[in-house]
Amino acid sequence: MTDTAASAQVPLVNYLVLGDRPHLVANQCTNCGARFFDRRNACASCSGTSFEKVDIATEGEVRSFTIVTLAAPGVPVPFVAAVIDCGGTSVRANIINTPPDPDHVKLGMRVRLATYSLGTDDQGTEAIGFGFEPA
Amino acid sequence: MAENVYILGITMTKFGKHPDKDTVDLGAEAALGALRDGGVTMHDMGILAAGNLMNASSGFGQQLQKQIGQTGIPVYNVANACATGATALRTVIMAVKSGEVDMGLAVGVEKLAGAGLLGGGGRAKSDAKVWEPSGRFGAVTPTDGRIGTDAMPGTFAQVGMEYGHKYGEVSFETFAKISEKNHAHSTLNPLAAYSKRFTLEEIMNDMMIAYPNTRPMCSANCDGAAAAVVVSESKLRTLSLEQQRRAIKVSASVLTTDPYEEACQILPNVNTLTRNAAKIAYEQAGVGPDDLDLVELHDCFATAELVHYDNLMLCPEGGAVDFFESGAPWRDGSTPVNVSGGLQSKGHPISATGIANIWEICHHLRGEAGDRQIEGAKVGLAHVIGLGSACGVHILEKSAV
Ligand SMILES: [Zn+2]
Question: InterPro entries from the xrefs (chain B) (predicted)?
Fold first, then answer.
């Protein structure tokens, strides 16, 4: 049991799919195509109630960003918060694996999904987070 | 035909630190001030709408009545983020417009001096040693800072940066210059929380909060209250000539929320609902952006002010930077914006803001704004936005009497 527990991983959020090719997955409204990352009661666009899972492109373009240097207690700074356009679906994520300054992070920059460890809990489960890094 | 409505009396307290006054004290000061300004009393009011976000479930309106007049009228305690004050006012306007009452009072108050960063953090960070998915995203730990930012400065920074991506990059310096303008304007406002002029260098070299917003480019947390008495036109015509002369016509009163569009649940879209509110307001009032003698818009951050030039159609689409660089929004420009000093300098006691900006406009339209009077002002627009989102736009006109 300890062996399997030691290798167990859990994603930071349930719309991050781990494995050989980590990617994000959205709930897509089968009626209008609107995409959402959270658990849905209905569609915010058409009020439809039928959804299907769709994979989101793992590469995209930085549409907006900020470099946060003051945050709530417990939130490590600095970090780069951004909106990534992944093939027409907007994704909220941090820009990682590059210095957090305006010389290294640019609007329109090409980025790709990357994962990292958030640490291991008492049961040996490792949480995996995601961000986007320069492509 | 629905009744025309007027602001009969309106006031704001000094914004800043009021350690000796509690929420009800500040609210009472503003409410009594507005009643006095309108030459009426609580006994003339048919409705009270009250906003106080920090104690939104405390029945603030009834607490206020206990201090200034328990006349048995209906109280609507409202909460709508930073649009709370505008929502209280709009609630009273709807009641008067419908003909249910001929007069009503709207009050907004907040005690925020010393409050830190608003928004963000999420649930308390625990030392739980088991990753347990919870919430709508099945998150095993708080996501603020790991998946973007929940805090206001970074959210509105991205709003400004997104504008730059869409229409051509906006420099840090341009955003800082917007803040320079508002701090300069505030030096003429004795009720502003801060009235110190900053140089561009001081603004740019101050502490960075969320690039490109430095500390002076963020709205100032402070204490304050504002209140307004709304009256129907038919009732106003029975009042004194002096009351009629000082009354300000509410030509448009609009509240909107953010309609669904791609990305709006990723980064709040503060643009479309503002543009929608402005369109409806211009139509209701029968005026256009060129007719405005002054505008008070929701500059919660310097990055927000820029996009609202465009959203309120003060400039052609995509032209906000050119509009600003032309000098138009300075107090001696063609469309003075935030001559009060705006939220960055006058301060932002959340629930008071949506009435205080109306007060600023009324003050000029009445010709009572002293040193900072915009000469000959006849039409003004007040705009607020609460993230989540709610947008209030009011257009006000000088009384024809
Ligand atoms: Zn749909």
Answer: Thiolase (IPR002155), Thiolase-like (IPR016039), Thiolase_C_2 (IPR055140), Thiolase_N (IPR020616)
List residues bridging with A120 in a β-sheet: A126
Q: To the nearest whole percent, how much of chain B has pLDDT over 70?
A: 97
Reported ipTM: 0.94
Which ranges of B56-206 would DSSP assign to H, the alpha helix? 60-68, 84-97, 152-167, 172-186, 200-205
Report the residue from B140, B148, B165 with minimal CB separation from A93: B148
* Spatial distance between the Cα atoms of B21 and B108, rounded to a whole number of angstroms: 15
Q: Which of A132, A96, A117, A93 is nearest to A8 (CA)?
A: A117
Minimum mean pLDDT range among A6-15, B18-27, B183-192, B257-266: A6-15
Q: What residues sit around ligand 1, an ion, with C-beta below 5 angstroms? A: A 29, 31-32, 34, 43, 45-46, 48
Indicate if B82 belongs to the active site. yes
Classify residue B110: in a domain, yes or no.
yes
Interface residue of A27, A61, A68 to substitute, partner B, most B CBs within 10 Å? A68
Domain containing B49: what range? Answer: 5-114+220-398
B355 occurs within a structural domain: yes
Give me the CATH number covering residue B339. Answer: 3.40.47.10
B93 C-beta neighbours (distance < 10 Å), count: 24
Cα–Cα distance between B149 and A29 in angstroms, integer?
26
CB < 8 Å to B154, chain A: 66, 68, 71, 81
- Per residue in B8-35, is it b (16+ CB within 10 Å) or e — as a string? bbbbbbbbbbbeebebbbbbbbbbbbbb
Q: Is residue B336 part of a domain?
A: yes
Query: Residues 248..267 of B with a Cβ closer than 8 Å to A: which?
Result: 260, 262-263, 265-267
Q: Is B289 exposed, middle or buried (0-12, 13-18, 19+ CB in 10 A)?
A: middle
- pLDDT above 90 as % of chain B: 93
CA–centroid distance, A86 to ligand 1, in Å, is 20
Token pair listed for A102 = 């305006």
Of residues A77, A81, A102, nearest to B158 (C-beta): A81
Q: Is residue B301 part of a domain?
A: yes
Average pLDDT over residues B101-112: 97
Q: Is the bond into B349 cis (omega within 30 degrees of 0)?
A: no
Instruction: Tell me the CA distances in angstroms from A103 to A98, A99, A106, B72, B387, one per residue in order.
Output: 10, 8, 7, 62, 30
Mutate to test the interface with B, among A53, A75, A89 (most CBs of B within 10 A): A75
Q: Mean pLDDT of all residues in chain B?
A: 95
Instruction: Tell me how far the alpha carbon of residue A89 lies from the centroid of ligand 1, in angstroms.
Output: 15
Domain count along chain B: 1
Task: Specify whether B364 is catalytic.
Answer: no
